[in-house]
User: Which sequence fits this backbone?
């Protein structure tokens, strides 16, 4: 790839896990607005529930998530109680018995709550909502702290999928990000989960980490493939020390440059696809029989704040500090201040701190971006008709694609936009061409690759 094309990958753009993106969130969306949005949900529409647990036993320096170290068992138990209270608030407002398409625990490290507590929350959710035959219950965990007792409790709670954080197997890289995790520890965790009947296991990796090289990344990929998880998510490291102060512990001089990051991303795609995994969207890989791969083949792949999903429910309700909800009327996020979150929930109201209402134009652009992020192609006239918009609704956007067309990253045939194989890594740049908020956005974003 020539220098001019590489310069495009140095541009900073949103990750497009939503549209409008979090950069458009503002404090004008409060608890009253969020409650009205919940109550306006059409009857019969299923929901996905996301529970955010912002606690970890130790803090990794690469992480830009809203996390903190738990001070005590009592603090974790109190937080679990708040999650259940907020769940009740939601169920009361949208109507009990509504179908629960998925229940996901993310963080942080949700398993820090303990297996018994997680099981209690799952049972509580299933009392307030109706499980479907294919309802997925998923949990993120840290293999360094997984025990046989925890695994048994997850299996007993009906957990169907576990995501294990690994990031990189190289000891040098692990020291640089403050996460020491021997290969044997990860393999042992995977074995325990499978022995307990939890067959769907994901491994999360990151490229672009400090001291990471093509050789070390190749070794990490080889080890991961040997473990044969059903899914692999591998994200480009986002160095955002202005937002995540813990990242200031990472020496920027040890980070790969844009050319090396691009080579790493290409290595990932080549290695994993040759090993039998299907490329899913921008940063996921799945075995052919995994529901994510099946959804991608059928054109049913979706994208939300948790990444790519095969869950068809468009409505996502987030509970917990910093959790984000996506509803037809807009996006709403809870406060990240643990004291403010607790005070609101104990007072019987929502802890909504910010968000954004979604216009008809936003809904249309959101569909365009989701199809590009999931399918790498979009039929603009067909989407416009679906939204009762004129066929030329995108005429002002198409000229912004021309530089990407000139670089061979996109083809444009009338209203048919298709990302080329070489352009897959640049798909966020393609999405940015349709982002009507980006030119006046005050947000700071990560590099395109």
Assistant:
């Amino acid at each position: 790839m020539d220098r001019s094309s590489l310069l495009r990958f140095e541009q900073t753009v949103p990750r497009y896990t939503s549209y409008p993106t979090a950069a458009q969130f503002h404090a004008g969306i409060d608890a009253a607005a969020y409650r009205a949005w919940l109550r306006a949900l059409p009857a019969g529409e299923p929901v996905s529930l996301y529970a955010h647990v912002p606690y970890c036993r130790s803090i990794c320096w690469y992480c830009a998530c809203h996390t903190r170290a738990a001070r005590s068992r009592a603090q974790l138990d109190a937080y679990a109680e708040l999650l259940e209270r907020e769940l009740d608030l939601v169920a009361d407002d949208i109507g009990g018995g509504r179908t629960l398409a998925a229940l996901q625990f993310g963080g942080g490290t949700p398993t820090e709550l303990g297996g018994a507590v997680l099981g209690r929350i799952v049972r509580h959710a299933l009392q307030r909502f109706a499980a479907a035959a294919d309802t997925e219950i998923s949990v993120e965990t840290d293999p360094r702290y997984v025990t046989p007792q925890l695994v048994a409790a997850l299996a007993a709670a009906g957990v169907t999928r576990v995501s294990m954080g690994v990031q990189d197997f190289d000891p040098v890289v692990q020291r640089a990000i403050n996460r020491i995790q021997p290969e044997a520890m990860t393999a042992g965790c995977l074995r325990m989960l499978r022995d307990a009947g939890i067959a769907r296991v994901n491994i999360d990796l990151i490229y672009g980490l400090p001291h990471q090289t093509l050789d070390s990344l190749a070794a990490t990929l080889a080890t991961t493939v040997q473990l044969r998880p059903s899914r692999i998510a591998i994200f480009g490291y986002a160095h955002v020390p202005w937002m995540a102060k813990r990242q200031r512990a990472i020496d920027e001089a040890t980070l790969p440059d844009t050319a090396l990051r691009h080579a790493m991303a290409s290595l990932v795609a080549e290695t994993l696809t040759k090993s039998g995994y299907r490329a899913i969207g921008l940063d996921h890989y799945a075995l052919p029989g995994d529901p994510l791969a099946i959804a991608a083949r059928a054109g049913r792949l979706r994208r939300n704040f948790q990444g790519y999903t095969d869950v068809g429910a468009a409505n996502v309700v987030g509970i917990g500090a910093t959790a984000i909800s996506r509803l037809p009327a807009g996006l709403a996020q809870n406060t990240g201040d643990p004291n403010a979150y607790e005070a609101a929930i104990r007072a019987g109201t929502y802890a909504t701190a910010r968000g954004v209402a979604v216009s008809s134009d936003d809904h249309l652009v959101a569909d365009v971006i989701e199809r590009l992020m999931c399918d790498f192609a979009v039929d603009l006239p067909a989407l416009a008709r679906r939204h009762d918009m004129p066929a030329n609704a995108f005429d002002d956007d198409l000229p912004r694609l021309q530089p990407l067309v000139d670089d061979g990253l996109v083809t444009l045939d009338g209203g048919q936009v298709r990302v080329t194989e070489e352009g897959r890594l640049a798909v966020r740049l393609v999405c940015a061409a349709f982002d009507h908020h980006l030119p006046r956005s005050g947000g700071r974003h990560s590099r395109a690759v």
In short: The first helix runs from residue 3 to 9. The longest strand covers residues 130-141.
